[in-house]
TrEMBL record:
Residue ranges constituting the TRPM SLOG domain according to the UniProt record: 84-347
Keywords, sorted A to Z: Coiled coil, Ion channel, Ion transport, Membrane, Transmembrane, Transmembrane helix, Transport
Spans through the membrane: 824-843, 891-909, 921-939, 951-975, 1036-1058
The protein's name in its UniProt record: Transient receptor potential cation channel trpm
InterPro entries associated with the record: Ion_trans_dom, TRPM, TRPM-like, TRPM_SLOG
Length: 1310
């Protein structure tokens, strides 16, 4: 248990008081004592006032003084000490002071439920079943509601049972929930109470078992953690603690719970057993206004049984008269009361019968399943109060987090729920992360589109999360000047989402349209909308904004896809279970899973950068992996159902997610498993071929077609219809729109000039309208879905029943040179030509005059740099620096930039004839990279690409080993240079020699002439001091570098190959998307002719800007579908999602059924063994009968061998344990009798083995391998006398008895 800081309560004597008697009033039964229970000398005032009054009142006859007993009680509990806070206070103390003490100084949280337990105070025994029923119910309540449980705190009766029930969870699992078991006991009744006197003391309290305490005083229970000792100035008298207890309960019941529909803290009374005072207490609870529900445990005895009997049978006046005598007799016999007192308590039982609707009887023997649990009954009784509205009942179940109560008690009442009531409850359930309640409310028909509004979503983002919430750190990154208790806005959330998506995705919260809607909603301007505007809102029309853009007012108030917004909210606030629930509901499940995965991964990276706990980062990574698996399962399920629709699902533009595709979101989230899925690979292979249809040897066909263009006519191309089903870039999409618009305008112009008559003009106008609709339908059917339900009939205007329409010559040429595979070979061939010319330039002599080869290389590099600028402009991102950041994620782009700048720098140096050699050196270094860049081309290959991936992985790993190698290399190099050349002057050559020779020593060049050079002889240099150290240090250096580091590097490379080789193909498949996208957006002409393409692109851009139509286009490949076609895709996705959930639930049920079947089989096996074991005694009896019959036949006329005297208790099942020793003594006694019988008979004939042949049959028993049977069998074969066998069994039985009784093998042997 957590130690309390008692320093906060060291001034409790200034707030709380105690009471002491100041007037001595003689007790009528004892003249030496006052009514307070003390004699004259025991009063605090040695000369107290005497009074002849006939009654004693603590209010008038006592005085208040500062309390002198508070602190911490230490109970010895096994190896640990249990602590409990205590305080002595007057019975009429202010309850607000008591609540402040409990919540502020003792650190308790306000409860969500208060259970006041009353019952037997003396020692009594509860049945084990009832005790477990009580324990499980109270523990469940304590875990879910953080209830305060009030008892009398004594070590006896029901308080001891309650404390024992909660003790198992007190010090471990409920430490954070602050389990509160509060004992309110009378101060004057405490045993050894004088030891508790002291201010802020920590005292060791001697805990006595209630059964060992014979004193009338009470002993404290060590199972409680808080004690309030009520003091009214009396000694050895009780009852006043109930006054304090009732006042405290009423004060707690007036406190409002923290919720939207503010309701008071509920109170319930639990009755277990009890005395006459318990009956009186129950009457007080049910008669007050509002009444407190009472739960009575059936079968606990005494007062509980009387109350239950009264509620069940004393229902009418007639029955009450008939049962009056029986009840009166029961009260007198049970409590030994007089006639008058019995009449009083009978009247109280009649009141209980009248108010039986407030008394709830519970029993562990109920057959109602979970509804009979004690926790369910206690909470359910509180929900059945008439003074509570259904909305408050629902709110209580939400506070308690008991969805079973809400389902069984609240929603089954057939209450007509209003939308506002359910919406408020849904808001609380979301804010408190009650996943089951949200699911229940969705089942009850809550419309989330009407529920989720901008203010509510913003409130959810500002709600406190029970789990670790990383949102504060994320907002702090985008709002550096964030103040304390800053309220997040949706604009901040939009910036956070943009940051986490790494600039490739723009949140809708960052758009101008949303900003205007947000401003209008938060300023409540929609209240003053004009009637015409209101009508447009109801008709879901749009309203023109200030800048000409349109704004959907209805969408401004509520979100069209609320589950999308709630999923993002749940992910950002780290509510993983809620996020999975939002993923299962609504549309666009695949996109939601990919968004969640990407956000979780980015949040894990941010958490690691912010030095959060390692558990937080690991939790976020696990959440990302879980959503990755969910997305993969959904794609796989869709692929099995319809692969064509799955491909279109991956590539259709999602308007609600910044018009991104699921495939692009998977790339942003780096989901290698999804990109390597067959659906994605089929799509990428189709995109790589473009308009070509060459399944066999496509590379050879493309290369030959490039070398001999007439071959293009012989290639196989896709039809017009198939091309329309392929994803396209945004530029191609708008090009088709412009083309169709021009065709329509041209047809209008021709129709207007050819028809001048008014009658004919009407017919021609109809023709034009039909052409417009046909053209618009063609545009809207780009990426059409032909396999969804009845979509074939809708696609008939496009495809009809006609054969596929072949492409024209112009279209074939365009599709050939626009295919990514063609662009790849064009650029690759141009690159090898550039590399050949560059190599030629470097290998020959460089003249002062620039020749054609240098001009070609320069033009290639310059145009390549222009292509890099175009790539940056076409990269996804809102701002330029974000585009550069995304573009720089590729290492090839950074290396290309460095190589281009290096070449341009060398070219400018080359212009000066004096420094041409230096420029050639830079050229020579620069060309190394251009040769290494061939790996980028080779990575496109399915066979070489994975190897290139492993190569770069090796390179990254080797970089760390180079750092380790440099440590030893520089260490030995400096030592060697300083030792062998002590007279060197400071030159660059000395610095070079530090690393030059030690590095090449790694490869076997040891420079032997310098290791042990001759010196000191005539004509030679003098020997350097310490030169003999060089070979020794070099040996250590070579051991560390060659033997240790290099072999370690080889081992690491081997480990990397083993781990990465199986996934290398998957990594290549993931990178294939970027390759396809790069070549899809690349110009058809390679450098240096690419300048022509750049000029055309720039001209188109200026033309579009001049017409104010479009800006820069998105280069990603998408299917642009109209709303109707998109709905068909969503329907297919939803259907697959439902099937997936059903399949998962079915698999879970099958797994549970398999587990149950396995358990049943194990139980059958155990039952079979038990049955076999139970038949063992009868088998032994039969064998004994065989022995007796044999002995009778051998010894006719002599005394029968008294084997029948063996105790048959031995032959019973091993369940008998207490009689084992007695049975052993009987066995010894019977063996002695057998000895006496044998002495009188001829024992020689008894040694015949055949006389005990029945024993040999035991060898075929199931226990033949046991030790005892093996020994018996061996002894029988040797002709051992049966008496000797019995004598030999006795020590074996004595040896086995401490283990747990007779061994089954012994019984079998007997």
């Amino acid at each position: 248990m957590r130690k309390h800081d008692t320093s906060n309560g060291k001034h409790l004597d200034l707030i709380f008081s105690k009471r002491e008697c100041q007037v001595f009033i003689c007790n009528t039964t004892d003249q030496e004592r006052c009514f307070c229970g003390r004699n004259v000398t025991a009063h605090s005032n040695r000369d107290p006032l005497h009074s002849s009054a006939s009654s004693w009142n603590p209010t008038y006859h006592t005085f208040l003084s500062p309390t002198d007993a508070f602190g911490t009680i230490l109970f010895q509990h096994g190896a640990h000490m249990l602590e409990a806070q205590y305080l002595r206070l007057a019975f009429d103390s202010r309850t607000d002071h008591i609540l402040h003490l409990l919540t502020k100084q003792w650190g308790l949280e306000l409860p969500k439920l208060v259970i006041s337990v009353h019952g037997g105070r003396s020692q009594f025994q509860l049945p084990e079943k009832l005790r477990n029923y009580l324990k499980n119910g109270l523990m469940k309540i304590a875990k879910t509601t953080r209830a305060w449980i009030l008892t009398d705190g004594t070590n006896g009766g029901i308080a001891e049972v309650i404390g024992e029930s909660l003790s198992s969870e007190r010090s471990s699992r409920l430490r954070n929930t602050r389990l509160a078991c509060i004992g309110i006991a009378p101060w004057g009744m405490l045993e050894n109470r004088h030891s508790l006197v002291g201010r802020g003391k920590r005292i060791n309290y001697v805990h006595k078992e209630s059964s060992k305490s014979k004193s009338a005083l009470i002993n404290l229970s060590n199972r409680h953690n808080y004690f309030l000792f009520a003091d009214n100035g009396t000694c050895r008298q009780g009852g006043h603690e109930l006054i304090l207890r009732r006042r405290l309960e009423k004060s707690i019941g007036n406190i409002r719970l923290q919720s939207r529909n503010r309701c008071n803290i509920p109170l319930a009374c639990l009755i277990v057993e009890g005395d006459l005072q318990t009956i009186q207490t129950v009457t007080q609870y049910i008669m007050e206004v509002p009444a407190t529900p009472v739960i009575v445990i059936e079968g606990s005895g005494k007062a509980s049984d009387l109350i239950i009997f009264a509620c069940r049978y004393m229902t009418t006046s007639t029955k009450a008269q008939e049962l009056r005598a029986y009840v009166l007799e029961s009260i007198q016999s049970m409590f030994s009361t007089g006639i008058k007192e019995t009449q009083v308590y009978f009247s109280l039982l009649e009141l209980c019968a009248e108010k039986r609707d407030m008394i709830h009887i519970v029993s562990p023997d109920s057959t109602e399943g979970c509804c009979s649990d004690l926790d369910f009954q206690i909470m359910g009784s509180l929900l059945e109060n008439e003074h509570l509205a259904p909305q408050l009942n629902l709110n209580l179940t939400l506070i308690w987090n008991r969805v079973d109560l809400a389902r069984q008690k609240v929603f089954k009442s057939h209450h007509n729920w209003t939308h506002s009531a359910l919406h408020e409850t849904m808001m609380d359930a979301l804010a408190q992360n009650r996943v089951d309640f949200v699911r229940l409310l969705l089942e009850q028909g809550v419309n989330m589109s009407q529920f989720l509004t901008i203010p509510r979503l913003e409130e959810l983002y500002n709600s406190k999360a029970e789990s670790t919430n990383t949102l504060r750190y994320l907002v702090a990154d985008v709002r550096p000047t964030m103040i304390r208790n800053y309220k997040y806005t949706l604009f901040d959330i939009g910036l956070v989402i943009n940051k986490l998506m790494k600039g490739t995705y723009k949140s809708s919260f960052s758009s101008r349209k949303f900003r205007r809607a947000y401003t209008a909603v938060m300023r409540k301007t929609f209240v003053s909308l004009q009637p015409s505007l209101l009508q447009s809102v109801l008709m879901n029309e749009t309203v023109t904004g200030h800048e000409g853009d349109t704004m959907d007012v209805k969408e401004a108030v509520a979100f069209r896809f609320p589950f999308n917004e709630l999923l993002v909210w749940a992910v950002l606030t780290n509510r993983h279970s809620m996020a999975k629930l939002m993923w299962q509901h609504g549309e666009e499940a695949l996109a939601k899973a990919l968004i969640a995965c990407c956000l979780y991964k980015s949040m894990a990276e941010e958490a690691a950068d912010d030095d959060l706990e390692a558990e937080v980062c690991e939790e976020l990574r696990k959440n990302a992996i879980e959503f990755e698996d969910l997305a993969l399962e959904l794609v796989d399920h869709c692929h099995k159902k319809d692969d064509d629709l799955t491909v279109q699902l991956l590539t259709c533009a999602q308007p609600n997610w910044d018009r991104q595709t699921c495939l692009h979101l998977a790339v942003v989230a780096k989901l290698k498993s999804l990109l390597s899925h067959p659906s994605a690979q089929i799509l990428l292979a189709d995109l790589w071929m473009g308009g070509l249809r060459a399944r066999k040897s496509p590379n050879a066909k493309v290369v030959f077609a490039l070398l001999f263009p007439p071959i293009i006519l012989k290639l196989d191309f896709k039809s017009e219809e198939e091309l329309q089903l392929m994803p396209q870039t945004e530029e191609e999409y708008f090009y088709e729109i412009d083309k169709e618009n021009l065709d329509i305008e041209e047809s209008e112009r021709l129709d207007g000039t050819e028809n001048e008559l008014e009658e004919i003009n009407d017919e021609e106008q109809t023709d034009v309208d039909s052409k417009k609709s046909e053209a618009s339908s063609v545009i809207s059917q780009r990426g059409l879905i032909a396999n969804i339900g009845d979509a074939t009939t809708e696609a008939e205007p496009l495809t009809g029943n006609k054969p596929p329409k072949p492409l024209k010559l112009k279209k074939k040429v365009y599709e050939f040179y626009g295919a990514p595979i063609t662009k790849f070979w064009v650029h690759s061939i141009a690159y090898f030509i550039f590399l050949f010319i560059y190599s030629y330039t470097v290998l020959i002599r460089t003249l002062p005059v620039i020749e054609w080869n240098e001009y070609y290389v320069l033009s290639y590099v310059v145009t390549l740099s222009m292509e890099k600028v175009r790539e940056i402009a076409a990269t996804d991102g809102v701002r330029t620096w974000k585009k550069i950041r995304v573009w720089a994620n590729s290492g090839w782009n950074i290396c290309d930039t460095i190589a281009i700048l290096t070449f341009i720098f060398a070219f400018f140096l080359r212009l000066d004839p004096n420094i041409i050699p230096e420029a050639r050196v830079i050229y020579s270094i620069n060309i190394i990279y251009w040769y290494v860049r061939i790996l980028r081309i080779l990575s496109v290959s399915k066979f070489l690409g994975p190897l290139v991936t492993l190569l770069f992985r090796y390179f990254y790993t080797m970089a760390y080993f180079v750092v380790l190698l440099c440590v030893f290399l520089f260490g030995y190099g400096v030592f060697r240079q300083s030792l062998l050349y002590p007279e060197n002057e400071p030159t660059w050559e000395s610095l070079r020699n530090v690393t030059f020779q030690p590095y090449f020593m790694i490869y076997g060049e040891l420079f032997k002439e310098e290791i042990d050079a001759s010196c000191g002889e005539p004509g030679l240099d003098a020997c350097v001091t310490g030169r003999w150290l060089n070979p020794l240090v070099m040996t250590f250096y070579l051991l560390m570098s060659i033997v240790l580091l290099l072999n370690m590097l080889i081992a690491v490379f081997n480990s990397i190959f083993i781990r990465k080789n199986p996934v290398a193909l998957k990594i290549w498949m993931f990178q294939r998307y970027a390759v396809v996208l790069d070549y899809e957006g690349a110009p058809s002409l390679p450098p240096p002719f690419i300048i022509v393409s750049h000029i055309i692109i720039l001209g188109k851009l200026l033309h579009r800007r001049s017409r104010l139509k479009y800006g820069l286009f998105d280069r990603s490949l998408k299917l642009y579908l109209d709303e109707k076609r998109l709905e068909l895709i969503r329907d297919f996705e939803e259907e697959c999602m439902e099937d997936l959930v059903k399949d998962k639930n079915k698999n879970e049920r099958l797994a549970c059924s398999a587990n149950v079947h396995e358990i049943q089989e194990q139980l059958k096996t155990i039952q079979y063994k038990l049955d076999a074991f139970s038949s063992l005694p009868s088998l032994v009896l039969n064998k004994i009968e065989v022995i007796e019959n044999t002995i009778k036949n051998k010894h006719s006329g002599k005394r029968m061998l008294s084997i029948s005297k063996l105790p048959y208790t031995m032959l019973e099942t091993p369940k008998i344990r207490q009689g084992d020793k007695r049975s052993l003594e009987n066995l010894k006694s019977n063996v002695a009798n057998i000895e006496q019988d044998i002495e009188e008979s001829d024992t020689s004939s008894c040694s015949d083995v055949s006389s005990i042949s029945g024993f040999t049959d035991l060898s075929n028993h199931d226990h033949q391998n046991s030790e005892s049977l093996a020994w018996l069998h061996e002894q029988m074969l040797e002709g051992t006398h049966p008496l000797d066998l019995l004598r030999g069994l006795i020590p074996y039985i004595e040896e086995k008895m401490p283990v747990g009784g007779f061994d089954e093998t012994i019984l079998g042997g007997c």
